[in-house]
């Protein structure tokens, strides 16, 4: 309690340092979305500057989230020259609300030409400023949006804020129809669980593939993996506990509500989860969490891996995006209550989500697409690439009742008796959980389990907010015109239950039977990023986002181009890294080992011509053709990357080529290299093994 939020310009600090009128005016902007007045910004800027300087800051930065998926910043000092050759510390309202970075080097998908450089950052006053401490230096970080000179969004934050406004507007229309006249805002809230791996930093530095791509491009599974299921929720060793404690302290100082930490399923894998907060702040906090994990790991001689699949054959990492809707009066709109079949308002919002997910499944899948996620979706570690909703026994039964009219009962969980007299009986949930579902209802929220571990959660939440807002808008349009509100509402819910329950599936999402059943139901199965992101520029998507003012057609096409380009560049970097490691590390190491084997054979035969050297000869004969094969496949991969680069004029065609040709060549090269790893002397193999990285921590 002494240091939680100490580095945040939060509500308590503002209440203490701002004049009452300024504080109230700023909160009008934050709470009700009213325009920010420059005179208010001037007072806030001065108070923010004084607070930052008192806490050791000399510089400030507009902290923004460009389309790279990372955060970006440019530091400016508070100093301004005076006429007598000295300086004073200044920070104006204009400097607070607007910055001018060079936008030419950020991905823009054709919105701006390379020689057209100007861009702007704009203060997001709904997300509090904070102080970041780096090596004794303190920086005032001001969360901002980032747009081009022509006004298009070049970042993750701007569309997110737009989507939050549109879902608030449409949800309020529904609430007014239910008689709520006092709520002023509906906010989507998120809690994002973050999975990650930790390995020794010294091993990370010896692996070019991990350093450049975030994942191992070569490597044989260790004799023991996760089959004993002893890592999940296991005891956390002292070194990792110390790391986690420092992570928590760093996050708590920044007001990040880090709550849960535990071992995950795979060896070396862990998870951290914060408490729910509004979506834009949760997005900022998740970026801070990822940055903090890297920074603190480095201090402890560790490397944090956020790639979705850093180790082939080992469970990968995701990010569970827990999403809900809350009013400014503290009411969770996805809270079913004790009798959800009688809770018409709850059923309205649940049905809106069901219809939204069914109608925009391809868009939801696209929001969770990147090259790393292609390695894990559909495996027995993550949801399948098929979008479906898990509702559980209680809600699924209510949806079935809705098909036939008004529901009249809810399944109750009752009590769970464990059978030991000293243990208490537990209230039993009316619904089990389903870890194989991409979009699961978990009590009073939906858990989107498909989000990649390295991805910003802004994109998925922009989609969820907007598609649900669209359905709420359709509902409100009908209900506002209806003479019989309850009759029309019943008709709407029944229509959704009949026509959109195909997306509801409570079974095993990993099974082959579900893949066939999903195809029979007509659900899309977009297994790769290149396929998935085409949904961004469909007429349906463009009309959706344009109607709600979240994206223009230009902004959507730019993101389509950016994501395709990022996919191709990622695969290209991985391919070139494989070629480099194969040529300069693996091939020489295998040659040296082969030479040692040959010398061993010759030495033994010289000493004793009758001595048995069958084992050595057999091993050499096994290695020699694989060595030739490795050289051949390295050249084939190199040729494939050269051919792929020639397709730069067509981003989609190039992406398909990288997926179908280059990636295949990468897998073939890896297969040969991994065969050699199990033959070459352990100490002569140039790359730290999976065994070392996963179990020596």
TrEMBL record:
<comment type="similarity">
    <text>Belongs to the glutamine synthetase family.</text>
</comment>
<protein>
    <submittedName>
        <fullName>Glutamate--ammonia ligase, catalytic domain protein</fullName>
    </submittedName>
</protein>
<dbReference type="InterPro" id="IPR027303">
    <property type="entry name" value="Gln_synth_gly_rich_site"/>
</dbReference>
<dbReference type="GO" id="GO:0006542">
    <property type="term" value="P:glutamine biosynthetic process"/>
</dbReference>
<dbReference type="InterPro" id="IPR040577">
    <property type="entry name" value="Gln-synt_C"/>
</dbReference>
<dbReference type="Pfam" id="PF12437">
    <property type="entry name" value="GSIII_N"/>
</dbReference>
<keyword id="KW-0436">Ligase</keyword>
<feature type="domain" description="GS catalytic">
    <location>
        <begin position="156"/>
        <end position="586"/>
    </location>
</feature>
<dbReference type="InterPro" id="IPR022147">
    <property type="entry name" value="GSIII_N"/>
</dbReference>
<dbReference type="InterPro" id="IPR008146">
    <property type="entry name" value="Gln_synth_cat_dom"/>
</dbReference>
<dbReference type="Pfam" id="PF18318">
    <property type="entry name" value="Gln-synt_C-ter"/>
</dbReference>
<dbReference type="Pfam" id="PF00120">
    <property type="entry name" value="Gln-synt_C"/>
</dbReference>
<feature type="region of interest" description="Disordered">
    <location>
        <begin position="404"/>
        <end position="434"/>
    </location>
</feature>
<dbReference type="InterPro" id="IPR008147">
    <property type="entry name" value="Gln_synt_N"/>
</dbReference>
<dbReference type="InterPro" id="IPR014746">
    <property type="entry name" value="Gln_synth/guanido_kin_cat_dom"/>
</dbReference>
<dbReference type="GO" id="GO:0004356">
    <property type="term" value="F:glutamine synthetase activity"/>
</dbReference>
<feature type="domain" description="GS beta-grasp">
    <location>
        <begin position="58"/>
        <end position="151"/>
    </location>
</feature>
<dbReference type="InterPro" id="IPR052725">
    <property type="entry name" value="GS_Type-3"/>
</dbReference>
């Amino acid at each position: 309690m002494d240091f939680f939020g100490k580095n945040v310009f939060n509500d308590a600090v503002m209440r203490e340092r701002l004049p009452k009128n300024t504080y109230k005016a700023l909160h009008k902007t934050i709470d009700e979305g009213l325009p920010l007045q420059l005179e208010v910004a001037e007072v806030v800027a001065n108070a923010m500057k004084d607070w930052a300087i008192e806490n050791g800051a000399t510089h400030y930065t507009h902290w923004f989230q460009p389309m790279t998926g990372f955060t970006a910043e440019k530091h400016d000092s508070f100093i301004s020259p005076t006429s007598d050759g000295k300086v004073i510390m200044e920070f104006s309202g204009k400097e607070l609300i607007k910055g001018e970075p060079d936008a030419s080097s950020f991905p823009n998908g054709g919105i701006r030409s390379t020689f057209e450089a100007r861009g702007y950052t704009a203060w997001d006053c709904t997300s509090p400023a904070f102080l970041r401490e780096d090596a004794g230096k303190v920086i005032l970080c001001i969360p901002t949006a980032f747009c081009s000179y022509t006004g298009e969004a070049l970042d993750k934050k701007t569309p997110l804020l737009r989507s939050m406004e549109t879902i608030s507007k449409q949800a309020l229309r529904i609430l007014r129809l239910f008689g709520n006249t006092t709520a002023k805002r509906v906010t989507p809230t998120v809690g994002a669980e973050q999975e990650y791996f930790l390995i020794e930093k010294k091993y990370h530095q010896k692996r070019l593939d991990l350093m450049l791509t975030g994942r191992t491009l070569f490597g044989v599974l260790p004799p023991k993996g996760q089959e004993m299921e002893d890592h999940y929720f296991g005891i956390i060793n002292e070194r990792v506990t110390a790391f986690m404690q420092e992570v928590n302290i760093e996050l708590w100082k920044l007001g990040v509500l880090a709550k849960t930490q535990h071992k995950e399923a795979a060896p070396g894998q862990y998870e951290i989860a914060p408490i729910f907060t509004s979506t834009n702040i949760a997005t900022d906090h998740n970026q801070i969490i990822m940055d903090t994990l890297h920074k603190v790991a480095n201090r402890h001689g560790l490397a944090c891996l956020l790639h979705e699949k850093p180790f082939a054959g080992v469970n990968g990492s995701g990010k569970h995006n827990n999403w809900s809707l809350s009013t400014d009066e503290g009411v969770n709109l996805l809270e079913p209550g004790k009798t959800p079949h009688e809770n018409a308002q709850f059923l309205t919002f649940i049905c809106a989500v069901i219809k939204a997910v069914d109608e925009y499944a391809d868009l939801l899948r696209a929001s969770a697409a990147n090259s790393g996620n292609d390695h894990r979706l559909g495996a027995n570690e993550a949801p399948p690439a098929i979008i479906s909703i898990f509702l559980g026994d209680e809600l699924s039964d209510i949806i079935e009742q809705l098909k036939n009219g008004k529901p009249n009962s809810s399944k109750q969980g009752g009590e769970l008796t464990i059978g030991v007299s000293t243990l208490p009986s537990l209230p039993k949930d009316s619904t089990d959980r389903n870890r194989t579902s991409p979009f699961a209802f978990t009590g009073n929220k939906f858990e989107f389990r498909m989000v990649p571990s390295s991805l910003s959660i802004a994109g998925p939440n922009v989609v969820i907010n907007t598609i649900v807002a669209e359905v709420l808008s359709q509902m409100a349009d009908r209900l506002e015109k209806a003479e019989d509100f309850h009759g029309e509402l019943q008709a709407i819910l029944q229509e959704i239950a009949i026509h959109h329950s195909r997306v509801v599936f409570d079974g095993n999402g990993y099974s082959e039977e579900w893949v066939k059943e999903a195809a029979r139901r007509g659900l899309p199965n977009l297994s790769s990023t290149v396929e998935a992101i085409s949904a961004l520029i469909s007429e349906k998507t463009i009309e959706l986002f344009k109607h709600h003012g979240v994206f223009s057609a230009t902004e959507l096409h730019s993101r389509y181009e950016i994501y395709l380009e990022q996919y191709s560049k990622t695969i290209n970097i991985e391919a070139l890294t494989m070629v480099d490691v194969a040529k300069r590390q693996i091939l020489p190491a295998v040659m040296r080992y082969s030479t040692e084997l040959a010398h061993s054979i010759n030495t033994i035969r010289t000493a004793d011509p009758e001595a048995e050297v069958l084992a050595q000869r057999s091993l050499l004969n096994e290695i020699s053709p694989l060595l030739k094969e490795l050289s051949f496949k390295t050249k084939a991969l190199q040729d494939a990357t050269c051919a792929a680069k020639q397709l730069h004029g067509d981003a989609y065609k190039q992406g398909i080529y990288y997926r179908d040709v280059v990636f295949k060549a990468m897998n073939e090269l890896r297969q040969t290299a991994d065969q050699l790893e199990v033959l070459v002397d352990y100490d002569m193999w140039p790359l730290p093994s999976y065994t070392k990285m996963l179990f020596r921590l």
